Amino acid sequence: GWPPFGSFSVDEESKLLYLVSNDNEKLYVHLIVNERNSVRSILEEGLTIWIDPEGRNKRRLGARFPLIDRLERPDRAERRTVSELSTGVTPPDRLPNFSSQNMNIELLGFFDTKSTIIPNNEPRHINGFLSTNEFEELVYRLEIPYLVLGSDTFVNKTISINIFGTTQSQSGPS
Known about the structure:
The protein is mainly β. The protein is about 10% helix and about 35% strand.
């Protein structure tokens, strides 16, 4: 389920609301984005969440979601928003309806490779979700299983997560 609104923190620079949480199997990154340029950037370029399982605030492992195939994008001079590409026309004040199920995720630094692209919604792997809420804000969630981070648990450990240049430390379950 979605966490309560009051549990989110605000990044003053990017104006996004964020929450990093966890359970016994996964790490969760929740974002609510209402600033239109940030929304457009996330939809067109994806958002990279950096994770350091050692808690040292380094950009060790990254997950970029959503990943839109660059071959499907128009040239910069002709670039339109993802919503315009998918629906043809988008009112300027409305966000698109979209299916995050058909979007890919780029993994950076995982599996001893520089970059690996995986389909979204793979069982037992990193999964991303996009939607809009009743306030027409972009709602973003990334679920990261501990096994993908190289451990079956992060009990009593602290890891660091970097979102838009904001670093958040997260302790595993006790």
